[in-house]
Every structure is written in C-alpha cells, then in structure tokens.
Amino acid sequence: xxxxxxxxxxxxxxxxxxxxxxxxxxxxxxxxxxxxxxxxxxxxxxxxxxxxxxxxxxxxxxxxxxxxxxxxxxxxxxxxxxxxxxxxxxxxxxxxxxxxxxxxxxxxxxxxxxxxxxxxxxxxxxxxxxxxxxxxxxxxxxxxxxxxxxxxxxxxxxxxxxxxxxxxxxxxxxxxxxxxxxxxxxxxxxxxxxxxxxxxxxxxxxxxxxxxxxxxxxxxxxxxxxxxxxxxxx
Length: 234
Fold this sequence. Notes:
The chain is of the alpha/beta class. It has 10 helices and 6 strands. The radius of gyration is 19 Å and the shape is globular. The two termini are 31 Å apart. The model has no long low-confidence stretch (mean pLDDT 94).
C-alpha cells in the first residue's frame, strides 16, 4: 500500500440506476452486429446479460475476453476465470464469436520505467495519470514478480482490436474445470486430433480463437503513438 501513497484516488461516481448486464444486453441486441464486447474481468455480468438476453450471443459481433491460463509455471488458474468459473463456462459455450487473451499471451508484454517515461512524455492530464498510477505498479511487479517492469494485460486486449498484428493466435477447443477442488476455475485447451483421447468425447469444449504470440515492441509503439496524438489542451 505504501507504493501508492500520494496517488490520486478515483472519483466517486453516483450510481445511475442501471445495471451493467441490462445495459450491455439491451444495447447489443438493439444493434445487432455493431458491437464488440471487451471483457477484462470476471465474466459474471456478461453471463447474466446472456441469460437475460438469449439473442445477445448472435447479436454481438465478437466477445474478446481476457482470461484463462494454460501453460505458465506457478499458475493453476487465473483470477478472472477463477473467481466465477460458471460464468466463464457459460460465455465460452454461448455460441458467440470469441477471442480469448490468456495470461500466456499477456505475460509476454512488458512495460519498464524507461518505457513509461518515453510513452508518457507528452504533457497531458491522461499521460500524467498514467505515470502516477503505473509507476507504483512497476515497482510492485519488480519486487514481487522479479520482473524488469510490469505486464500490461488489459492494454494488449484493446491493442489487438486496433491492430491484429500485435498478437497471433489459433483456434482451440477451450473449457473450464467446474468441479470442486484446487483446479476449479482452471482452463484447458487442445487442437484435434489428440494423441490420446481415452474417455474424451469428440469436440469437447468450445471452439474459440486464442491469442498466443505477442509483439511487445509493436504494442509499446502503439501506446506511444496514441499518447503522442493527444491534444495538448483539453
């Protein structure tokens, strides 16, 4: 907590009476094919929206999800799928067009102190806010994860939507472990044909696009270019 001393707290916003699931479901279903939904947290709200608006799965252009972890040492599950496995399972199996951005991809990103200084060199309230809030996170990651900087998970998801050269992927069958125990919330993937398929029905899981290989230099360049184009005055 000491690392964030002096960092401005987010402004307190009054609730407007609308819930996230209702707003996203109504908006997407009223405008079929017009919206791509970006989900960068647990999928509870998205699952609730799909339950209340069954036509949402075919109305949404695509759902891009930050979630899952498949082959990283020291990780059995990620936070987003681990906190609400049933919601993740429901969304993956909804029939919507889905791209998954797992930790295997997001941990290929890296933002160092030098990178942060360079990409936020422009004088602007937004770049000032980014410097204030990401600086402590870099320090935290260097201490706890022994990294030379920090991962920028969420930024990769949005950057890929703007320029798909920033990450390559492939189609996989993906699913989530729902049984109680230490692996509850664990994600797994495979591409047929399996070398060993004992007890595994054909086409088990949901077929989704999974990002794998990240161009971190391009990602940082995209961020720098976006900040450079900010107006000097609000």
